[in-house]
Design brief:
The chain is an alpha/beta fold. 18% of the residues lie in helices and 35% in strands. The chain has two domains: 47 residues, 2,3-Dihydroxybiphenyl 1,2-Dioxygenase, domain 1, CATH 3.10.180; 52 residues, Roll (2,3-Dihydroxybiphenyl 1,2-Dioxygenase, domain 1), CATH 3.10.180.10. The protein has a four-stranded mixed β-sheet, with helices on one face. The protein has a four-stranded mixed β-sheet with strand order 5-8-7-6, covered by helices on one side.
Length: 120
């Protein structure tokens, strides 16, 4: 087997409109317009897609509730980490700075999925 590309990650959300407000409004991701026969949306960044699929029961895995970076998470690069932190806090989203000492922080989407933002 020879893998040639990473295509997408799909995550489930309870309320699609609320999730879109976060992924589009706060993170600024661009919607990929696609006809779906179920409630969901696709986003694309850097050639990789994120699929949000609405489900009534969402339980993000959180084996380490105290160190968010040691849990399953999506990771994004940002130009200005301080600005990203300020925008997340202003929008009411929790922020946990990386304990590794690098320029990174973690936040949670409305369903509790963890996202890492790193300044690279």
């Amino acid at each position: 087997m020879q893998l040639t590309a990473y295509l997408h990650t799909a995550i489930t959300v309870r309320d699609l409109q609320r999730a879109q407000a976060f992924y589009e409004g706060v993170l600024g991701l661009q919607l990929v317009h696609r006809a779906l026969n179920f409630p969901g949306v696709w986003y694309e960044i850097g050639g990789v897609q994120i699929h949000l699929i609405e489900q009534p029961h969402v339980h993000p895995e959180r084996p380490d509730p105290h160190r968010w970076g040691r849990n399953p998470h999506l990771a994004f690069a940002v130009k200005d980490l301080a600005q990203a932190e300020q925008e997340l806090r202003a929008a009411g989203y929790p922020v946990q700075k990386s304990t590794s000492g690098r320029a990174a922080l973690f936040t949670q989407d409305p369903d509790g999925h963890i996202l890492e933002l790193s300044q690279v």
